Amino acid sequence: MRYTQKDFKSDQEVRWCPGCGDHSVLASLLKALPEVCEEHGYSKERVVLVSGIGCSSRLPYYVDTYGFHSIHGRAMAIATGIKVANPTLSIWELTGDGDALAIGGNHFIHAIRRNIDINVILFNNQIYGLTKGQYSPTSKLGAITKTSPYGTVEHPFNPGAVVLGARGTFFARGIDTYISLNDEIMVAAAHHDGTSIVEMLVNCVIYNNGAHADIADRAVREDRTIVLRDGEPMIFGKNRDKGLILENEKLKVVKLGENGITEKDLLVHDSHTSSVGVHNMLVDMKYPEYPVALGVIRDVADKTYDDNVRDQLSEVKAKSSIQNMDELLHSGATWEVK
Amino acid sequence: MEQKIIESEDVVIRFAGDSGDGMQLTGTLFADSSALYGNEISTFPDYPAEIRAPKDTVSGVSGFQVHIGSCEIDTPGDYCDVLVAMNPAALRANAKWAKPTATIIVDTDTFNPDSIKRAGFKTDDPIKELNISDRILILSPITQMTKDSLADSGLENKMILRCRNMFCLGMCFFLFNRKLDYTYSYLERKFRKKPQMIDANKKVLFDGFNYANNIHAFANTYDVAPAKQEPGIYRNISGNQATAWGLMAASEKSGLPLFCGSYPITPATAILEELAIYKSLNVKTLQAEDEIAGICTAIGASFAGNLAVTTTSGPGFSLKSEALGLAVITELPLIVVDVQRSGPSTGIPTKTEQGDLDQALYGRNGECPICVVASHSPSNCFDMAFNAAKLALEHMMPVILLSEGFIGNGSEPWKIPSMKDYPAIHPPIITSLPEGETAFKPFMRDPVTMARRWAFPGTPGLEHRVGGLEKDSDGVISSDPANHEKKVRERAEKVARVANYIPDLKVFGPEKADVLVVGWGGTYGHLFTAVRRMIAEGKSVAFAHFDYINPLPKNTAEVFSRYGKILVCELNLGQFAGYLRTCHPEFDYLQYNKVQGQPFIVEEICDAVDKIL
Prior knowledge:
Helix content of chain A: 25-40%
CATH architecture of the largest domain in chain B: 3-Layer(aba) Sandwich
Structural class of chain A: alpha/beta
Distance between the termini of chain B: 48 Å
Number of strands of chain A: 12
Largest interface: A-B, 57 and 70 residues
Oligomer: heterodimer
Shape of chain A: globular
CATH superfamily of the largest domain in chain A: Thiamin diphosphate (ThDP)-binding fold, Pyr/PP domains
């Protein structure tokens, strides 16, 4: 039996603001989950949604499966506990830029370091929405918000750079206006064994409207973003006439046909290479100098934490002479009183 | 000089030296050998926070006290009969604990002008300055004799000096007529990868023993006969080890795997270390990135159906407060073990205290009652950990288990129980939707315990959401005023009803008396010993000790009503007394409090009771 979006849609009323980018991510997830279940042979109840606090963290209520809406910043730790306790579950974490990268920054990098097999959707709207408009760790330098009336004086995090810095094995980026790509990215995230981080650039229509408008608007999106696909040359633009090459150890945007550049000269995307060099450059690309990279940027295989836990457990179990409490109680130095 | 053997009911030995001198090991080996011999024992490791504090300073002195007896032993003893001082600082820090009749063994090789000065002595004669020349002083060149003993060993000087503690231990074994076998086999295990060290330590131990014998160092030796103990198989156990094992026992009895998410912190770390060993008993440990992740991974594991635990100490406990509230509102079973230490803040990390009771009872936002229980001795940590887990699992709620550095690090012989004597644990796990229900309601309650049902993710048909937001009985988010109050009251009532599942408060001593001594937690041994002594002296005193704090045993008021005065003794400024005043305001509570990072002394309890008798 193949599930449909309807099977995963809960009876709860969705309470995000009209026009919020989160609606689109929910739609993509509802589309992706049946595909994920089909690919992996999961039944629906094996899907568990975990979230922290913030607008995006309300999402578990809108999906009809097991869900845990926890506390601010701690979803990573709670998801980690769930996965270690029951590695057969398919864990999806929903978090925001404040939740994951400010209050939960520590758990975020350590989950990635451990490479525990969970799928994280990080809604990045560059603002604290639920507390009504304070700057977040991803707000651009100088952003004017309620707590930075004269502009922020803090450098923002680029979530992808944080992930690669923590030796993440999977990083992808999507954007709320690009639903079909997002569905594809989520399926890829589920396919990856290990911590999959999916950054979703979303619009906060109330407190940070247009934060991603430069690249998100459909009219300009194809010219200002590049969708990376494995094994394919890095081409972008409405007319598919622009590409990326490597020159002097830097990425460079070139026009096909100009200066004798052909498709053959372009970089070919390899998300599976363990080297972080090109991945780092792709993650860092900012408009207007570069197109913003979308799609699966990094997807490398490595041992997962949950596999290591399982393997060690069965190895020690097989070797240990102590198999129950009574044996343990009588182990080591004991003496008898008659 | 003729040697006399003193037969003694109980003797206290205190080993003291620099923090690198191996005093903890020396004390442990002495205690273990005595336990194997059949003595009752109680131990008290008393060490500084620094791993290697500045050499020869009082702040760097590490001590280990052992109380052995042929009678019932409930405390590590107040003052010692034998003091081993490895350097001037150890002597200076510990001379005040030596009885007037004490034997003091001193390594004279360490008494040079520099170290005497570093220890803070004002003159060059520490013995005179401390006014201890009337004690039995055994002034021995221990360092030199250790060097001589190992002159042909080929070991480096540094390694040779590390064996000094074995020389003292050998002397003490002679003093107490103990055999060396147990220590030999211990050394063979410990150094199995360094055979050179086995031989060196054994030789020094043996030479220390013979030295004491040959020079007739001691006018008297002690004979502490084996105690009359209940027949059975015994072992030594420390409180932290017993806590870990009690949790594992609950895992076996409930059939649920044990998950422990913890961050290292003194003095609780040994519980995590112990649990990490026993993967063969379905234990998973996760050393978290911080205290918050420790409890949050545990809450996640609980949601997924494990017996979930997080272990910590004071400052770490503070960090877990918010997540504890999450466990309360999601009504998930969880055990939080707090091995208390001196606070506030970092305080005195290696010293004991009972200062976290208020935090355990009240330290959260909102109306957030939590069941609080406390262990009262090293071996009792096993039972209380088991009981805490049983309550958490069967009542679907977090339980805070308070331990203390004193009992966590301390050890005592323990008659090994049989798991068949422990009750089964039946958490309200649900695996399918009962007939008559159309949708799973996660917060529907058992009418008797008020526990909700536990549906593990992965169970078909029971999909549901939990979280930190207030929900109605159907599990739907609700900010309805009446619903909120109803839920707050339900969660409080669920904790209150635990009173129906815990044992009555027991009293040691007469049914009626002038004074009832009241305690909780790790002060049990000292309070019990004090009251037993006073009853033997014909005083009108009884003793009631609380293992269960929230809720209190149902007969608490009835017990209190039978005594003239109630004296609440605790190692804080009166947190339990304050709590009792809230719960049972109809009684007057007198207090005896001490906040010095040290356990009570039996004598001071007796004095405090005498004052109000």
